Amino acid sequence: MVCAGESEHRVDGHRSFVEAAIDAGVIRGLARDGPVSAVAISDVADSAGAVFIDPQAYQSRAGYEAPDWQVAAWVSTYTTIAAGSVAAVSGDVERLTGHPATSLTQLLLRRFP
Predict the structure, then answer these.
(1) E-strand stretches of 1-113
(2) Residue ranges making up the domain that contains 104
(3) In this predicted model, what pLDDT tens digit does every residue of 22-55 receive, in sequence order?
(4) From the centroid of its chain, how far is CA 33?
């Protein structure tokens, strides 16, 4: 199980927790009914395999002569955006700062008035 933005150490801790819960037949904790956005590591591997099959995405970056890891990062970013996986906008910035998050349009107008 992997949660977005987690360190490898925490992921290992979650894996141990899940394995212990399976062995015990019960999940114990104080999270009540709180939701968790998690994915099985095998699903991450399957998803990565599906993403990296798209040769057009790789060909579009070939002229940059970037290292393989950089091209893979670009391709995964593009396919994530195309799939709508990063489309959700939360109210967290406004809740924490008291002002709405800066839109891409606003950010670009600051940089290129």
Answers:
(1) 2-3, 38-39
(2) 54-113
(3) 777 766 676 777 776 666 777 777 777 666 666 7
(4) 23
What's the rounded mean pLDDT across residues 19-24?
A: 73
Count of domains observed in the chain: 2
Q: Per the structure block, which two tokens stand in for 46?
A: 């399957």
* Secondary structure (3-state) at 39: strand
Amino acid at the residue 112: F
* Calpha distance 110→104 (Å, rounded): 10
What distance in Å separates the CA atoms of residue 49 and residue 41, rounded to the nearest whole number? Answer: 12
- Model pTM score: 0.42
SS3 (DSSP) at 81? helix
Domain presence at residue 46 = no
Number of other residues whose CB lies within 10 A of the CB of residue 60? 14
